[in-house]
Amino acid sequence: MSKIKTNALLAEFIGSTLLCGVVVGSGIMAFNLSGGNIAVALIGNSIATAAILWVLVAILGPISGAHFNPAVTVAFYIDKKIKVQSAVFYIVLQVFGCILGTLLAHAMFDQALLQAATTARSGYHLLLSEWIATFALVFAIFGAVRYAPKSVPAVVALTILAGYWWTSSTSFANPAITIGRALTNTFTGINPSNLIGFILAQFFGAASAVILSNYIFIKAQK
User: Fold this and answer.
1) 130 close to 209: Cβ distance less than 8 angstroms
2) Distance CA 59, CA 216 (A)
3) In angstroms, rounded to a whole number, what is the distance separating the alpha carbons of residues 13 and 172?
4) At the top level of CATH, which class does the domain 3-220 belong to?
5) Each residue of 134-178: pLDDT tens digit?
6) Deepest in the core among 1, 42, 197, 198, taking most CB within 10 A?
7) Other residues' Cβ atoms within 10 Å of the Cβ of residue 196
8) What's the distance, CA 34 to chain centroid?
């Protein structure tokens, strides 16, 4: 395995760890400080998530592409921008990184390291939201990569920030993050029984975005 490849894998692992750590940790902090006001807690959680996304994509994008998200990796694989071996390694490290991020967030807030979420997130409206949220994220990434590559960090961060507020699911849009959030019984948790539906919706949204992106963006250049 080449040095560049190793650097890319490490970047995906570290990026996923920090991303999920911020998602879960900022959720705990925001909920603790909000006095039970869910809207205020969501403001803090969404701003922190968007902020770290901007930073991570900016600094790690040149190394690994800054996927931090199995749905994004699968989208790039479908589009033949990443080989299957790299995609598999990326996804495994993204999942393990998000699990570690959740554990670190628990440790920082002096909570039990091992938890199981009890927050139910079920219903067609939430699955539709996850399909749309992931579609929007991948669609935005593909458009930015093609037409405005320097804006990719901002595009990713702002798409997720908006997704927190315009989707009923608050835009998980990431199977690895979804798994990490199933392991925390805090503000950002999701009951493990709801995992499969969310993850399938996310992958479907990513695949749909690849198809439409290639049609729209390639057509526009002809």
Assistant:
1) no
2) 29
3) 18
4) mainly alpha
5) 999 999 999 999 999 999 999 999 999 999 999 999 999 999 999
6) 198
7) 10
8) 24
CA dist., res. 33 & res. 42, Å (int) = 11
Query: What are the residues whose beta carbons fall under 8 Å from the beta carbon of 4, sequence distance 6 or more?
Result: none
- For 166-178, the pLDDT digits (tens) are 999 999 999 999 9
Burial 63-86 (b: 16+ CB within 10 A, else e): bbbbbbbbbbbbbbbbbeebeeeb
* pLDDT band for position 219 (cuts 50, 70, 90): low
Contact assessment for residue 113 and residue 103, using Cβ atoms and an 8 Å cutoff: yes
Radius of gyration over every alpha carbon of the chain, rounded to an integer in angstroms: 17
Give phi and psi for 196, each to the nearest 5.
Answer: -60, -45
